[in-house]
């Protein structure tokens, strides 16, 4: 270990010369939940920065509207971040095209309907519709999801580059199962599985049906999924509905989907649906 790295580990201070932008994003990345407010001590701890550094960066972020400070002294994400995030084409454009079809699915199923895009080795949730009586989940808009243990992640992974797929599979707990579900996605246009529920108070597993939203070249522009109780979501009707919605969203985005499995009028065969 180098002297600089050893000093960083012992002191908790950022490496000398670390760009201010990197440290600013560490501060912004410390927020984990919608509407969360953090005191300076917690903000510094999560960012992995000294309190003095965090205080100085937070003040700069407040000055540009990226953070706001409450009357009790705690920090929250500022509205400027929402304004900037709304301009992201991979999220906003996809959401605008997908929302009418997601609303149809939501009205029929009364469960969670998710929309996500891939960002590196993770999925980022860009929209979620949920009913009050739906099974509890932790998914939040802007949150990150693993590609190997969520249906929507596997739908995205199935159409990622070979390098991304192999990198994710190398760290997956059940790579054979992930490969099976990816093959199902590519051949049938949907994947259906039981996945772990991250909410302790809910059922141990949930059902998920997910379908990629493909572009002209076969790349995944995003994915849409339905998440519900384990016995509900993997039924044939749900698979056909998700496949139909994904194709309709692709058309709404002005893309042409060809040679990507069975069409919406061809019911997919049953695939693996157990964790």
Please, could you describe this protein's structure?
The chain has 275 residues and is an alpha+beta fold. Helices cover 42% and strands 19% of the residues. Residues 1-12 and 255-275 have low confidence and may be disordered.
Task: Put the structure in a nutshell.
The chain has ten helices and eight strands.
Identify the overall geometry.
globular
Query: Largest beta sheet, briefly?
Result: 6 strands, antiparallel
Neighbour order of strands in the largest sheet? 5-4-3-8-7-6
The secondary structure category is alpha+beta
What is the H/E string?
Answer: HHHHEEHHEEEHHHEEEH
Query: Could you tell me the mean pLDDT?
Result: 78
Radius of gyration equals 21 Å
What portion of residues belong to β-strands?
15-25%
Helix content: 40-55%
| Count of DSSP-assigned helices | 10
Could you tell me how far the N terminus lies from the C terminus, measured between alpha carbons in angstroms? 41 Å
Uncertain stretches of 5 or more adjacent residues: 1-12, 255-275
Count of extended strands: 8
In terms of topology, how is this protein built?
Blueprint: H1 3-11, H2 20-28, H3 40-47, H4 51-63, E1 67-69, E2 75-77, H5 79-85, H6 89-109, E3 112-119, E4 122-129, E5 144-146, H7 151-157, H8 162-171, H9 175-188, E6 191-196, E7 205-214, E8 220-229, H10 236-252
Antiparallel strand pairs: 1-2, 3-4, 3-8, 4-5, 6-7, 7-8
């Amino acid at each position: 270990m180098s002297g600089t790295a050893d000093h960083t580990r012992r002191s908790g201070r950022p490496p000398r010369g670390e760009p201010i932008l990197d440290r600013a994003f560490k501060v912004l990345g410390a927020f984990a939940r919608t509407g969360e407010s953090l005191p300076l001590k917690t903000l510094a701890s999560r960012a992995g920065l000294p309190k003095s550094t965090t205080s100085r960066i937070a003040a700069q972020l407040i000055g540009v509207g990226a953070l706001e400070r409450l009357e009790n002294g705690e920090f929250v994400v500022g509205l400027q971040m929402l304004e900037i995030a709304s301009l992201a084409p991979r999220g906003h454009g996809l959401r605008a095209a997908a929302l009418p079809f997601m609303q149809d699915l939501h009205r029929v199923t009364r469960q969670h309907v998710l929309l996500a895009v891939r960002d590196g080795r993770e999925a980022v949730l860009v929209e979620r519709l949920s009913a009050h009586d739906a099974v509890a989940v932790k998914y939040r808009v802007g949150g990150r999801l693993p590609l190997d243990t969520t249906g929507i992640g596997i739908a995205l992974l199935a159409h990622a580059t070979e390098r991304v797929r192999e990198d994710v599979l190398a760290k997956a707990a059940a790579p054979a199962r992930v490969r099976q579900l990816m093959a199902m996605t590519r051949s049938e246009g949907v994947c259906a599985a039981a996945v772990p529920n991250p909410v302790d108070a809910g059922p141990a597993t949930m059902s998920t049906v997910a379908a990629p939203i493909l572009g002209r070249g076969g790349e995944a522009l995003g994915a849409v999924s339905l998440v519900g109780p384990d016995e509900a979501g993997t039924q044939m009707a749900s698979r056909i509905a998700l496949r139909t919605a994904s194709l309709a969203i692709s058309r709404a985005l002005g893309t042409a989907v060809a040679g990507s499995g069975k069409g919406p009028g061809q019911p997919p065969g049953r695939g693996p649906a157990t964790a």
